[in-house]
Write a structure and sequence with these properties.
five-stranded mixed β-sheet; MoeA_linker/N_sf; molybdenum; 7 helices; MoaB/Mog-like_dom_sf; metal-binding; Molybdenum Cofactor Biosythetic Enzyme, Chain A; binds ligand LQZAQKY5; EC 2.10.1.1; single chain; binds molybdate ion
């Protein structure tokens, strides 16, 4: 059987980062920058007020106290967005709002709370030091500064700075478009009634969600049936829109294995047994002229999700231009004894709580509810068949 690490290594050798494209800011969340972004202007672009209050000369208010406020005429109002250049003469002030340009001649802002709030004449009862509540031009970013390096993952704050430096679009690696196809004649979409021998289709829901969580855009085509020709027709029809394909089911030893039967003749997808449980039957390769990577995951629900975590998630990271490797692990103490088949790496479902992990009841690869109760996979190495309670184990948080 093929070792887990060898299977991942083969996948990561095959999968390439997507080509960068121009992406509008509104669609750029989760994309990875393929350019470094500089600011065309200083930020803030002009000296502006950090508070609502009065723009003053600090010297004019230096004697102000609660008992002996300084009385000054208010010569203008400066709301944010104002562009008329105001100048204050010694002994006068303007009203000013947060974000409004500081008038020429003023060197401090007195917050409204230190005044009587007057609009014609204001009584100021606390002095302000020069520079008080003024945000200087360029103190965030200078014109020409790099604000984001190439390779940066665009999250909410990065979108904010892109917009803040006036960018409408960026050159970036897009989020991979992933087609999720589930096969099986016994599958019925949730919401429809079950007939005899049928079950509700769940894998595509798990996998679509997992793709989205991993930064991809997912498209579902559920319950494709068990006919290899129809499977191939559907796959071929949807392939032009996909950067990667995930299938579930139809790859093991049964009489009706549509995925294996349809893809084996192409010669570009390999079906093999990987030394792991769950998830032993695996297939990986490329399809179509664009050599789109395809992950043919086993149909058992726990097997397909575990396979996603181990193989597809790192591959999507590589496609996005992010660091890609095995899932991060932490060490914990198992609260109960564990069993694992010899020669296979087990990924047991567990609940990780601090530095302790408890295996859940129900370790079958069909046990959806047990998977949903877990928040971690407990890794038992190939050479271990039993692990006593209290032993240290490696755990993959989910
Ligand atoms: N003779 C052998 N039989 C099996 C072997 C084997 O080595 N020799 N391997 C077993 C293992 S391990 C697994 S895992 C499964 C993998 O089978 P397939 O990938 O071909 O999947 P199916 O047969 O289509 O389905 C397996 C199981 O999962 C349920 N299923 C499938 N798709 C979905 C879905 N979208 N939503 C919910 N449940 C799904 C399906 O009803 C089956 O119960 O093969 C073993 N057999
Ligand atoms: O190895 Mo299969 O994936 O038990 O469930």
């Amino acid at each position: 059987m093929k070792p887990v690490d060898a299977h991942l290594a083969e996948i990561l050798r095959t999968v390439r980062p997507l080509d960068p494209v121009e992406i509008d800011l509104d669609r750029a969340l989760g994309a990875v920058l393929a350019e470094s972004v500089t600011s065309p202007v200083a930020l803030p672009p002009f000296d502006n007020s950090a508070m609502d209050g009065y723009a003053v000369r600090a010297k004019d208010v230096e004697t102000a106290t609660e008992d002996r406020p300084v009385l000054l005429p208010v010569v203008a109002d400066v709301p944010a967005g104002e562009h008329a250049p105001h100048v204050i003469e010694p002994g006068s002030v303007t009203r000013i709002m947060t974000g409004a340009p500081v008038p020429e001649g003023a060197d401090a802002v007195v917050p409204v709370e230190w005044t009587d709030g007057g609009t014609v004449r204001v009584a100021i009862h606390r002095p302000a030091e020069a520079g008080n509540a003024i945000r200087r031009s360029g103190e965030d970013v200078r014109a020409g500064d790099v604000v984001l390096d190439s390779g940066t993952l665009i999250g909410p704050a990065q979108l904010g700075v892109l917009a803040g430096v006036g960018r409408r679009a960026v050159r970036a690696l897009p989020r991979p478009r992933v087609l999720v196809l589930s096969t099986g004649a016994e599958l019925v979409d949730p919401g429809l009634p079950l007939g005899p021998g049928q079950i509700w289709e769940s894998n595509s829901y798990t996998l679509v969600a997992a793709v989205r969580e991993a930064g991809g855009e997912a498209y579902r085509r559920s319950a494709v049936g068990d006919d290899p020709a129809l499977f191939l027709e559907i796959l071929t029809g949807l392939l032009p829109e996909a950067d990667a394909v995930i299938t579930s089911g139809g790859i093991s030893m049964g009489a009706y294995e549509p995925v294996k039967e349809a893809l084996t003749p192409l010669g570009t997808v390999r079906f093999e047994k990987v030394a792991m449980q769950p998830g032993m039957p695996q297939g990986f390769g490329v399809v179509g002229e664009r050599e789109v990577p395809i992950f043919t995951l086993p149909g058992n629900p726990v097997s397909s999700y575990v396979s996603f975590v181990l193989y597809v998630r790192p591959a999507l990271a590589r496609m996005r231009g992010l660091p890609a490797g095995p899932p991060p692990m932490v060490t914990a103490t198992t609260t109960a004894a564990l069993r694992s088949p010899s020669g296979k790496r087990s990924y047991l479902r567990g609940v990780l709580d601090g530095d302790r992990v408890a295996p859940v009841r129900g370790q079958g690869s069909h046990q959806l509810a047990a998977l949903a109760a877990a928040n971690a996979l407990i890794v038992v190495p190939e050479d271990a068949t039993e692990v006593p309670a209290g032993a240290a184990v490696e755990v993959i948080p989910l």
